[in-house]
Structures are given as structure tokens and as C-alpha cells.
From TrEMBL:
UniProt protein name: Uncharacterized protein
Organism this protein belongs to: Frigoribacterium faeni
One Pfam family it belongs to: Emfourin
Lineage, top ranks: Bacteria, Bacillati, Actinomycetota, Actinomycetes, Micrococcales
InterPro entries from the UniProt entry: Emfourin
Domain of life of the source: Bacteria
Length: 99
């Protein structure tokens, strides 16, 4: 299963993406617990305005059914922030160790 975090917007309007193959991680079970604990159904509605020059985060998990959340920067807190940081850290570490 793949978890992907994308960040777009900001001052430059660039998009950056990080991904982790959870099945290949030594702590797969803790990833699954973390993903199950996220408030997927409680993401902000379209009325939540994206603020100028701030990021928008898209978080996807290739589960069955697949899950997706689109969050303005100010809503990436608590368990969302923990997942975003974990995916970014793991993805960056894997990129440094890949040939």
C-alpha cells in the first residue's frame, strides 16, 4: 500500500510530492494503525477558504477503499501533521539511501 503526500501552492506555487510504500516498511502495522486513526471523514468542506500564499496538502492512501484528504495548511495539525511529517521523513530517508 502506498501513502502519498503532496504539497502545492505557497508563494512560488510549486508542487512537491513524497510517497512511502507502507508494505515495504519494517513497521507496517504502526503505519496501518496511524492511517486508521485519521479523521478521513472530517476534512474541511469546500467552504474552508484556502489562504493566499499558503500550502494545500493532498494526502492519499491506496487502501480499500482508497482514502483521500485535501487540507489547507492551517488544518494540517494533530494526527494529520504526524502523518505528513512521517511520510516526508521516511520518503526523504529512502531517497538518500537509494542508488
Amino acid at each position: 500500500m502506498k501513502v502519498t503526500v503532496s504539497r502545492s501552492g505557497g508563494f512560488a506555487g510549486l508542487t512537491r510530492t513524497w510517497s512511502v510504500d507502507v508494505d515495504a516498511e519494517p513497521d507496517t502495522e504502526s503505519w496501518l494503525v496511524q492511517l486508521d486513526g485519521l479523521p478521513w471523514g472530517q476534512t474541511p468542506s469546500g467552504g474552508q477558504m484556502v489562504q493566499p500564499d499558503r500550502f494545500v496538502w493532498v494526502i492519499t492512501a491506496d487502501t480499500r477503499p482508497s482514502r483521500k484528504a485535501k487540507l489547507p495548511e492551517q488544518q494540517v495539525t494533530g494526527p494529520w501533521r504526524e502523518l505528513v511529517d512521517r511520510v516526508r521523513t521516511t520518503s526523504d530517508a529512502e531517497a538518500r539511501t537509494s542508488p
